[in-house]
């Protein structure tokens, strides 16, 4: 008969809770730096994210795969969030470098640095910046011998709170390049589309010239 170590579970729950609190604070600091870099001020998004925003925690376990080249842990996608803060125990994350090969791009393996958190720009920030920041297209590859575990904390606006391009970033030379949208709109997109086939919600938001 298996016995549950309730003390260990309580301790783990306490540590995870503390981690959630700390990365939420970090997310607000990072978003403040982003909006400040855009000339919007550090507090431009703070109330919308701290009071009514969402934090989604995703724990992923990728078991060893005998032939990693024939399978993917996660297909290429970008996160519909403001930012994602990631902690992982092994390499496996790859991002698409848009600037490589003369603009045609290439996949780049992200090296593992122990104790370092990785931060992804999400679709929300691409819209917020009117395209000055680009959401990170990424995927997960599998390890032949070891299990990879990742803990991702996604930070975004509330379910029905729509992200739009600020008027401060719009002028005759820089028109609005994205339609506004909410997390609920994104969920509706998921119901009708297959992201495993490369469909990206951000592509539906870009306004064509």
What would you say this structure looks like, in words?
The protein has 209 residues and is of the alpha+beta class. The protein has a single domain, classed as Jelly Rolls (Sandwich). 28% of the residues lie in helices and 21% in strands. It is built from 5 helices and 8 strands; from the N terminus they run ααββββββαββαα. The strands form 2 sheets. A 4-stranded antiparallel β-sheet has the order 1-8-3-6. A hairpin with an 8-residue loop joins β4 (93-97) and β5. The longest helix has 32 residues, at 6-37. The radius of gyration is 19 Å and the shape is globular. The termini are far apart.
Number of spatially distinct domains: 1
Number of strands: 8
The helix tally amounts to 5
- Name the overall outline: globular
The percentage of residues in β strands lies in 15-25%
Distance between the termini: 66 Å
Major beta sheet, strand line-up: 1-8-3-6
Q: What is the fold named in CATH at topology level? A: Jelly Rolls
**H/E element order:** HHEEEEEEHEEHH
Q: Main β-sheet, in a few words?
A: 4 strands, antiparallel
**How would you state the average pLDDT, rounded?**
90
Q: Write down the Rg.
A: 19 Å
Brief descriptors of the model:
single chain, globular, alpha+beta, 8 strands, 209 residues, Jelly Rolls, four-stranded antiparallel sheet
SSE diagram, text form:
Layout: H1 6-37, H2 46-51, E1 54-62, E2 74-77, E3 83-88, E4 93-97, E5 106-109, E6 118-121, H3 123-128, E7 138-140, E8 148-156, H4 183-192, H5 201-205
Antiparallel strand pairs: 1-8, 2-7, 3-6, 3-8, 4-5, 4-7
């Amino acid at each position: 008969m298996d016995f549950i170590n309730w003390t260990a579970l309580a301790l783990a729950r306490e540590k995870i809770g503390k981690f959630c609190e700390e990365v939420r604070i970090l997310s607000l600091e990072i978003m403040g730096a982003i909006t400040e870099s855009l000339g919007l001020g550090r507090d431009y998004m703070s109330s919308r994210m701290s009071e009514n925003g969402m934090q989604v925690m995703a724990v992923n376990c990728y078991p060893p795969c005998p032939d990693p080249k024939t399978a993917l842990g996660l297909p290429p996608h970008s996160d519909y969030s403001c930012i994602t803060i990631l902690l992982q125990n092994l390499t496996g994350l790859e991002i698409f470098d848009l600037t490589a090969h003369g603009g045609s791009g290439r996949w780049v393996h992200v090296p593992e640095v122990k104790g370092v958190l990785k931060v992804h720009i999400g679709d929300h920030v691409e819209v917020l910046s009117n395209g000055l920041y680009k959401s990170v297209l990424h995927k997960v590859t599998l390890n032949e011998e070891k299990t990879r575990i990742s803990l991702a904390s996604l930070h975004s606006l509330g379910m029905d709170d729509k992200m739009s391009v600020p008027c401060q970033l719009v002028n005759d030379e820089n028109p609005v390049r994205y339609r506004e949208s909410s997390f609920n709109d994104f969920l509706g997109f998921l119901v009708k589309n297959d992201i495993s086939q490369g469909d990206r919600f951000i592509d539906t938001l870009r306004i064509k010239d």
